[in-house]
Sequence to fold (970 residues):
Amino acid sequence: MRWLLLLLFLTLLARAADKPVPTKDAAAAMKAPPGFNVTLFAGEPDVVQPIAFTFDDRGRMWVVECLSYPKWRADGKGNDRVIILEDTDGDGVHDKKTVVLDNGVNLSGIELGFGGVWLCSTPNLVFIPIKDDKPSGEPQVMLDGWNLKDAKHNAFNSLIWGPDGWLYGCNGIQTKSWVGAPGTPQDKRTYMDCGVWKYHPTRKVFEVVATGTTNPWGLDFDEHGEMFITNCVIDHLFHVVPGGRYQRMYGQDSNPYTFGLMSSCVDYKHWAGGHWTESRADKKTGAIQKSHDDAGGGHAHSGAAIYLGDNFPKEYRNTLFTCNIHGNRLNNDGLERTPSGMKGVRRPDFLFANDPWFRGICVKQGPEGALYVSDWSDTGECHNYDVADTTNGRIYRVAYGKPKKFAGDVSTMPLDELHKLVTSPNEWLSRKARRVLQERSVKDGIGVVVNLPAYSHKPGAEAADLRLLWAHEACGHAPDFGGDVVQPLLRTWIARRTGSAEAMRNNTSAVKQGTTPAERAGYAIGMSKLSPNDSDLWAFAQGLFSNAADNADDKLTQLYWLGIQPAALAKPAEALKLVNAVAIRRVRANIVHLVLSLPNSDATKQLDAVFPILKLADNDDTRQDILLGIQQAFEDRKSVKPPASWQDVYEKLSTERNLAIRELADDIALKFGDQRAVVLLAFQGANDKLPAEDRRRAIEKLLPVKPQDFATTLQNWLTDPKVRGVAIRGLAGYSDATIPAKILPLYASLTAEEKADAVLTLAARPAFALALLDAVEKGQIPKGDITAFTARQIIALNNKDVTAKLTTVWGTVKAASATRAEQTKKLKALLTPDYLKAADATRGKTLFTKSCATCHKLFGEGGDVGPELTGSQRGVLDYVLENVLDPNAVVPFDYKMVQFNLLDGRVVTGLVKKETAQSVTVRTANEQIVIAKEDIEKRTPTNNSVMPEGLFDSLKDEEIRDLVAYLQKK
Fold:
């Protein structure tokens, strides 16, 4: 029998690229752990494009069939469907189908409650009243403003009722939206892009819960109410707390005072790294690259289900399941507590579809404790916008043994039955019961929960007690426990909802001693909701931030800052009083940073308020934190006028024994134009007795300041190998006509990295570029040293003489789309396995260093402008050619180049890494620079990748062979 199954699997895999595994064979082809069985709950034609599903109070599955994607409809018309699939005999296969509606528009999420169905229907959140499985009224738009134009695969999604009785959902990074009730003026709407949001069904209030990640598509709560979302490209799993500001794939957080983003809760990936496209399966065979297969399948995840049922073995309880889109499987992550939060733990992959068409989208626990997963069933993925097969789709059930079918209707149960279900270990039942009680409380008030079971307050009963608390709170009844709560998890949840001055007064002394880090994190979350006008908030904050040991917990200190930041923004003078009164270093530095970054404020006057606090600081750590806050506030500014007190302040700081304090003081002095710091750093740069790294760092600090006659100093350093590289880069900032004549004679003696710096410096200005091209024409600089990136930079100078010279000496940058097919054919014929065997790997590495390493890292060497190549599919020739010959075919937003024409004639091209009101931070091919906005004449966004077109154009056949062979090296 085992041989027959193996033969079946091999047969199915062999035809994988042509069509999906037939529905009759699909469940048998899947591999689950021993004891588990998989059934096809539904498949085409009974269900197609199942993008989302949920279960009603009778245990029936409601499914969204999304026929709109990928061509979202802007005309308000559609044919998306909502259907009900019912398994009447409990065998894991549906046997009844009901069409609820067939005119849905852009549907991407579904949930049930309060007498109807809630639907993500971009640009709207829609509620449709339902009676007898049919709409009983017109659709009601509860919210609008979700971005339709840019939604693509980032549409809002993952509706689910939270423990607090709010409706939660996710939104993607491209869907930049202004959300509000219909008719809400623009200035009253709430902005959000990627993150988590929630909406109250009866109060009709919308809130952003947390921001960050990439395109989260999956949200669930664990048995203690902790929220988790699944994600793609960057880390796949985030523990989300209210008010959290998390790492993003690109761009800046909407709050300019976040001052640092929170990380994910995992330190591992489900793919082998490299660029996100590299975990895609082979287009022809459907096979996944082994390194990605071993790691978990790929970067893209969809759906989240934290198992809290009673069917699976205990080892799976409170673990998270998510669909790995490229891996054609279900990943399974453990969830463990840290002192102040949660972390994910790698576990073996749970379910292998063995079908390259498998595209898992949604995964949820069913009423009987089985796990259900929907399969989009297609060869593409979320970036395939042109073609989608809308004729198929599957939903599978994964059960352990034979679970008992749920046969009931939670919505009709009497109160005493609902009360019993609230503490059920089957979270599906508990959630349904709590929501039904919340619905009844709208009419009957808190009387529906007054007879709930009593709290246990015993160790081991935390989950049941939390469910009781959530039921009370959702119905508008928040019990007052006083000081009798002994369970840390219950105390933590209560701390999160702290929202009154009285509660703060009651707990001010408690947070100073005897609380756990998790409770303190909870208080920080609750504190952000308080009014800054309440004096008790400041006293409470002082107590909460008194534990110096908390500085070792990065996430906890981030929550501390996010908790106090709204109040600090509203009351900066009050916030400054905390600086010398608290032990949390991040809070101290960030308060100073915020005070000096306020819009429409005079930084010089604000310093008059900060310096007295610096004078009162009685220890090095506090002084260092205050200075760090000042330095961070000014690091993106070209210059700042110093207050009158600066002379005395700097004189004292310059004599400090603490080196870190002295260096911070010097950095601040530079922003003030203090010549004492300029002289000191110039001396350090020239002092050959200092380590080379210290000298280079001193020079780099002086480059944006441009001291008098510094161009001459930099030219003098061109003969010093220890600092020559930074001197060459620095000279790009000057227009002195003698600079090319100083650099070019040295070119032959430069290192490979210095040569790359020299070429880019000489390509920064028209006069310099002409000198560079003259040197190429004379053979002083090899033609191959002018890379396609440099050629593009020279063209960006927009000078007819320079462009003409480039064409004569070097050639032209060809449009990839016009030549790619021809070049691919030619190079595939050239780069045969036998020809590649004869490659010179050493020369290939040299070519990589010259052409690629400024932006890409391979085998631990190179830059970080573009994605790392070590874990990519560089072993596949088609992959290498596709990315080199047409790098602009698919360009993620964060890798699109921007061109800056500066007032002094320099042209800078690179990636925007950060932007403030005063400056733009740009990562170029060889450095990261801060450009003051007052120095920018013109800013031109491009659709070009950081990798230029025409990389191979200037290389000989043997050089192409050597470079490709090195790139493919294992």
Notes: The radius of gyration is 31 Å. The mean pLDDT is 88.
